[in-house]
TrEMBL record:
Molecular function via GO: DNA binding; DNA-binding transcription factor activity
Record-annotated HTH gntR-type domain positions: 9-79
Pfam family, one: GntR
This protein's UniProt keywords: DNA-binding, Transcription, Transcription regulation
Gene3D superfamilies: GntR ligand-binding domain-like, Winged helix-like DNA-binding domain superfamily/Winged helix DNA-binding domain
Coiled coil: none
Organism, as annotated: Mycolicibacterium flavescens
UniProt xrefs under InterPro entries: GntR_C, TF_FadR/GntR_C, Tscrpt_reg_HTH_GntR, WH-like_DNA-bd_sf, WH_DNA-bd_sf
Name the record gives this protein: GntR family transcriptional regulator
Length: 246
């Protein structure tokens, strides 16, 4: 690990920047334990408090995990999408964004994805979606079912082929899952009907994708998302993201 001694203002940020760059470029692999503090202090030319402040910055970004004790140290970890969702959630909370706004954003992102999947008709993609739909057909109402019914949505984003859209969709997916668990019933006739309707619609959308019927797939998916929004937000249209995440 070759580094030069840093002697500039805001040293902790500078140390964090150098280490972060090494992680992202793969110069220090995921799972690697960083050298002891004494060695890093010498290499960077910084004090222990400065190094530990840099560690706190990287730990808050989920780039390292600091293990305490005699055999402890800082271990490099992979950046997690949950971290993005958490920070984005904080911004949405601060801005007073409504849950309805989040659902509308999901609709704007997912509908074109479904259209593209139908246009491409990739056998591998269809096979993966088929597995999700088959699993859904066996579901019964319950709190776990609420999460499992969003697996089809997550799969659409994952298989869309655009990494940036996938990451943004994952962020929204995290919030939507919380809304589904918090705002919709998980037991009773209404819940049973919702489970059956969602599983049936997912199957119909997949059939359109398999047939290459892009317009039908996109139209049905948009209607499905609108109905899902109406079901979850009945009487709670003005609920904000902070209501879910606090």
């Amino acid at each position: 690990m070759e580094v030069t001694s840093l002697r500039e203002p805001k040293m902790a940020d500078r140390v964090a920047t150098v280490l972060r760059r090494m992680f992202i470029r793969g110069e220090i692999a995921e799972g690697t334990m960083l050298p002891p503090e004494s060695e890093l202090m010498e290499r960077f030319g910084v004090s222990r408090p400065t190094l530990r402040e840099a560690f706190r910055v990287l730990e808050s970004e989920s780039l390292i995990v600091v293990q305490r004790g005699v055999r402890g140290g800082a271990r490099v970890t992979r950046p997690r999408r949950e971290t993005l969702a958490r920070y984005a959630g904080l911004i949405l909370e601060y801005e007073g964004v409504t849950v309805k706004d989040v659902y509308e954003a999901r609709m704007a992102l997912e509908t074109p994805m479904v259209r593209r999947l139908a246009e491409e008709r990739d056998p591998a993609v269809i096979a993966e979606l088929e597995k999700v739909v088959e699993t859904e057909a066996q579901l019964e109402p319950g709190s776990d079912t609420v999460d499992q019914l969003t697996d089809f949505h997550a799969a659409i984003a994952r298989l869309s082929g655009n990494k940036t859209l996938q990451i943004v969709t994952d962020m929204l997916h995290h919030i939507v899952e919380k809304a589904n668990r918090s705002l919709q019933p998980t037991e009773g006739a209404r819940a049973e009907q919702a489970v059956r309707r969602s599983a049936k619609t997912h199957r119909m959308v997949l059939d359109h994708i398999k047939a290459g019927e892009a317009d039908k797939a996109a139209d049905l998916w948009q209607r499905h998302l609108q109905k899902a929004e109406e079901f979850v937000l009945t009487g709670a249209e003005m609920s904000t993201v902070v209501d879910l995440l606090e």
